[in-house]
């Protein structure tokens, strides 16, 4: 019975690790999206979350380098997104972003 329980826990841990990698994958996939769509509050929360779990992944016994790598990737992705949002927020916001171009009525020359 104990072996079956250990197998179940390892399987759940594997699914959890895979799901955890989806956070930085999603952030890197949206690197070229319009920066006006970035939620700075959520992005900041994810950056802080990754900082805590980077530390935790090394503090547990045995240390978990795969989890550490996942959170390093997520930290890099979230900080990149925050930098993009900050650059956008500090700009005059009149530049042609993809969302602004799509929302603007087309001007036709006669």
Fraction of residues in β-strands: under 5%
CATH architecture: Up-down Bundle
Pattern of helices and strands: HHHH
- Tell me the number of strands: 0
Distance separating the two termini: 80 Å
What gyration radius follows from the Cα positions, in whole Å?
20 Å
Indicate the percent of residues in helices. over 70%
Describe this structure in words.
This protein has four helices and no strands. It has helices at residues 2-29, 40-59, 65-90, 98-103. The chain has a single domain (13-90), classed as Monooxygenase. The chain is elongated, with a radius of gyration of 20 Å. The longest helix has 28 residues, at 2-29. By secondary structure, the chain is mostly helical.
Name its key features.
73% helix, 110 residues, Monooxygenase, mainly alpha
């Amino acid at each position: 019975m104990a072996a079956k329980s250990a197998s179940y826990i390892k399987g759940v841990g594997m699914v959890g690790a895979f799901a955890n990698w989806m956070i930085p994958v999603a952030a890197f996939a949206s690197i070229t999206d319009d920066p006006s769509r970035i939620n700075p509050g959520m992005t900041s929360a994810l950056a802080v979350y990754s900082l805590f779990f980077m530390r935790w992944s090394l503090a547990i016994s045995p240390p978990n380098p795969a989890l550490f790598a996942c959170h390093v990737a997520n930290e890099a992705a979230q900080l990149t997104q925050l930098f993009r949002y900050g650059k956008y927020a500090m700009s005059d916001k009149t530049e042609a972003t993809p969302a602004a171009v799509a929302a603007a009525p087309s001007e036709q020359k006669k």
